[in-house]
Design a protein that fits this description.
By secondary structure, the protein is of the alpha/beta class. It has 3 domains: 55 residues, no CATH class; 244 residues, Aspartate Aminotransferase, domain 2; 114 residues, Alpha-Beta Complex (Aspartate Aminotransferase, domain 1), CATH 3.90.1150. It contains 16 helices and 15 strands. The longest helix is centred in the C-terminal third of the chain and has 45 residues. The protein is globular, with a radius of gyration of 24 Å. It binds 4'-deoxy-4'-aminopyridoxal-5'-phosphate (PMP) and pyridoxal-5'-phosphate. It is found in: Cytoplasm.
């Protein structure tokens, strides 16, 4: 067999904060390493005895392999059982007594192993010392990441329209977000280079940033997906300026079938797991030769957000610093969530069954996306509203020609947006204002957008909401069509 030599990741000591470098983790958790000694009786760890966990057995119903509709799950679902002492009784590799006990910040070894295998199947990282650490979701993972890499007065970089929670996490830490220009393929590499090359510390009041936060696939709010060429171009800029990339990918597996238009036949689903995996745009993680990427994955959009389980993939150095922080903050995700996920993903579905589930989700979102696009083509005035068909995620981003609004020139763009927003509410439909997603609120507003999601309501309601949107826009623009 051929020996493939993989290099280790770059070290990031020059980018980590003093806080991140000073974290020693939990001294008491360190003592756990002595528990392996045979015959040892521990009066050490302050662990409550599992005798007092008021749970003996958990049963929950999940989809049988390949039978994924809500009706199928309800009527023909498979009941999985976790017992308190399944490990001692050789029934399972994980049980209630273990899952509900204190554990390490990186999460339980059982589920972590499954996550690492899944990451290898999907991304096959190119450097040697990569690793995964569980998170309680990407919201928290980004909060911890900011504390690992940024100080008050710093700037980070993101798409000019971005997920507001991340800006709102950064702001109270004294960290501002510099907007990078976008097009229909998301963040523009030239704009990233330009923002960095022209960075003026005196004007910005902070040093040149090095942390890029990006949502490469089905971006929130624009729905844009970066092509492979775009990812490579951005990675090259990251190498040029020695940037650290945080890729936040909750929508990675909501990559949909190609959009064929209202009157063309649908594209058949991927015929095999290989075909499915090949249809996905390669991640930054898979392109990362230097170890300059932290990928944030989350079960929120593909299993359920209330489970609060996700993971990061990065170099061992970064994962170790992250889990030392988690040890003293979030600790691992909820034991109940980890136990149920382990039963479902490892013991019941396995990797292949999970890929089947992801293909199911892909087809469901494709159908919903097609419904909203067809409704938009039917009901919206094309001279006032335009869009690009989303290829991934749950968002449809509508551009509004506010310069054609009768109040243009008399009111500011923000005031016109506010007026349109209220007109939508009058007509009984809620969309998000595009301006709520601006990374840099101080910049002049020169475009207007509305964000719609096709994830939340059934098809008939999507159609009705878009019909109301069309009526509200015509009403607001004084039927300028
Ligand atoms: N505070 C004190 C005084 C404790 O003894 C412990 C657990 N050893 C904790 C907090 C940790 O609590 P939690 O499991 O809710 O994070
Ligand atoms: N990142 C983005 C871009 C999102 O749109 C969302 C959810 O809306 C999240 C992260 C939240 O993820 P989690 O539930 O894993 O915290």
């Amino acid at each position: 067999t051929q020996h493939v030599h993989k290099a280790n990741a770059k070290r990031w000591d020059h980018r980590l904060t003093e806080e991140a470098k000073a974290r020693t983790g939990s001294s008491l958790k360190e003592a756990a390493k002595y528990l392996g000694q045979p015959g040892l009786i521990s009066l050490g760890g302050g662990l409550p005895s599992s005798e007092y966990f008021p749970l003996d057995e958990i049963k929950f119903k999940v989809p049988a392999l390949g039978h994924f509709s809500a009706k199928d799950i309800h009527e023909h679902g498979v009941v999985l059982t976790a017992g308190k002492h399944d490990m001692a009784e050789d029934k399972s590799l994980f049980d209630i007594a273990t899952a509900l006990q204190y554990g390490q910040g990186h999460g339980a070894a059982q589920l972590l192993r499954w996550i690492i295998e899944h990451t290898e199947i999907v991304h096959n990282p190119t450097y040697q010392d990569w690793s995964c650490t569980m998170t309680i979701g990407s919201t928290s993972a980004f909060d911890i990441t900011l504390r690992m890499f940024t100080k008050p007065g710093n700037w980070i970089l993101s798409e000019e329209f971005t997920f507001p929670a991340m800006v709102e996490s950064a702001a109270p830490m004294g960290v501002k977000v510099a907007a990078v220009g976008m097009d229909e393929h998301g963040m523009r590499a030239e704009s990233l280079d330009e923002v960095l090359s022209s960075w003026d510390e005196k004007v910005r009041g902070g040093p040149k940033p090095f942390l890029v936060y990006t949502v490469p696939t089905g971006q929130n709010p624009t729905g844009a997906t970066q092509t492979l060429e775009r990812r490579k171009a951005i990675y090259a800029v990251a190498q040029k300026h020695d940037l650290y990339i945080v890729e936040d990918e909750p929508y990675y597996f909501l990559q949909m079938q190609p959009y064929t238009g209202p009157n063309a036949p649908d594209v058949p689903p991927p015929a095999s797991h290989e075909e499915f995996l090949k249809s996905l745009v390669p991640s930054y993680l898979s392109l990362d030769t230097d170890g300059r990427v932290m990928r944030m994955d989350s079960f929120s959009k593909v299993i359920a957000p209330g489970g609060r389980v996700g993971w990061i993939t990065a170099s061992e150095q970064i994962c170790e610093r992250y889990s030392k922080h988690a040890d003293l903050a979030t600790q691992g995700p909820s034991g109940l969530s980890q136990l149920m996920l382990f039963k479902l993903l490892d013991e019941h579905w396995g990797h292949a069954g999970y890929l089947d589930w992801l293909i199911h989700i892909r087809m469901e979102y494709t159908a919903r996306r097609n419904v909203i696009l067809e409704a938009c083509e039917t009901y919206l005035p094309g001279d006032l509203i335009s869009w690009a068909p989303p290829m991934a995620g749950m968002f449809h981003w509508l551009k509004v020609e506010y310069r054609k609004h009768p109040h243009y020139g008399k009111k500011t763009a923000i005031e016109i947006e506010e007026e349109i927003f209220h007109k939508l509410m009058e007509h009984g439909t809620l969309l998000m204002k595009g301006s709520w997603f601006r990374a840099e609120q101080e910049l002049a507003v020169e475009t207007m957008f509305l964000r719609a999601t096709y994830a939340a309501v059934p098809s008939e309601q999507i159609q009705e909401a878009v019909r109301r949107l069309g009526a509200a826009i015509r009403d607001s623009f004084g039927d300028a069509t």
